[in-house]
């Protein structure tokens, strides 16, 4: 019997099969796990991706996490896997909630790569600032736009309004939002509102097995504070 790695994937609706071969660093890492690690590697495509049924752009977090839970339980069906030697690798968004997708009672350790451990509200405000810095926006303009975004994301993530509802009530904020009316990054608004409801500090504090947190030096999508939050919680 061989040990296994259970992969908890990223936010987007891209397939975790990577049919085009390795391109970026994450792709190369995943290709290494599959081809060269010596572990059985279990990957799950989101609803509506690959052979999975459903529509990814309409699937909220609750439906996605139920898929991960079912996939993890499915490991019991494979006689060649050593059930006592299963590790979890969470990549990007999936690294943040990996202990929810694969409970620590059956896991030997977690690896969280480019992940988040704060509230989604804090995480998104960091992204909004860092993306503007990366694009050379002047500091004064960044501060002005962040003042609007603080209230936008409060209504969006905490009050659970859609971007369309918010911008209808506050048309003066249209200049700081360039995504969908009821979606963001190709996922429904409810997906992110449910991420905001999570308490990852509590989730990671309950983990008693080894945890490795990795982060790219120039990663502004998952800022250093997000990875550090996982470490502090553990």
Pick out its properties:
234 residues, 5-stranded parallel β-sheet, single chain, two-stranded antiparallel sheet, 10 helices, 15% strand
Distance between the termini: 30 Å
- Average pLDDT number: 94
Order of strands in the sheet with the most strands?
2-1-3-4-7
The number of helical elements comes to 10
| Overall body shape | globular
Please provide the ordered H/E string of secondary-structure elements. EHEHEHHEHHHEEHHEH
Largest sheet: 5 strands, parallel
Q: Tell me the fraction of residues in β-strands, as a range.
A: 5-15%
As residue ranges, the low-confidence spans are: none
Secondary-structure-derived class: alpha/beta
Radius of gyration: 18 Å
Strand segment tally: 7
Q: How much helix, percentage-wise, in residues?
A: 40-55%
What does this structure look like?
This protein has 234 residues and is an alpha/beta fold. Helices cover 43% and strands 15% of the residues. It has ten helices and seven strands. The strands form two sheets. The chain has a five-stranded parallel β-sheet with strand order 2-1-3-4-7, sandwiched between helices. The chain has a two-stranded antiparallel ribbon with strand order 5-6. Helix 5 packs antiparallel against helix 6. The longest helix is centred in the middle third of the chain and has 20 residues. It starts with a strand and ends with a helix. The model has no long low-confidence stretch (mean pLDDT 94).
